[in-house]
Predict the 3D structure of the following.
Amino acid sequence: MVYITRKAQFSAAHRLNNPILDDKENYEIYDKCNNYWGHGHNYTIEVTICGTPNPDTGYLIDLKQLKKIINENIISKVDHKHLNFDVDFLKGKITTLENMSAIFWQQIQDKLPSGKLFKIKMWETENNSVEYFGEEFLIKSFEN
Ligand code: NI
């Protein structure tokens, strides 16, 4: 088994807020990240594919193809956007790294020409990252 990873960056704004809670409760949970007009991050995402390389090419997946899949299905949709309002597959979702890594997984899972999606790792700051391995969990949708 071989693991191959492609990294990408995007910049975006978001606001962590649950509309079923009141302002005080939201502030207690999300603190600075609840700032009314949002705030920005330079995100990094790493996509790891696993599998057995094709013996004829020596490739598990062509990294040019993987780059294109990540760009078309994730980066081009989120870069320089407000994640709460501009991105159809994030609408109504709370845009934590936890939720976004699982939602991004759904965006690319079925698009890989070879190999299997193994891990998505995302950084919101240099010190804060999340790793997601595909186990499903509940992501609620709220009216914005
Ligand atoms: Ni934030």
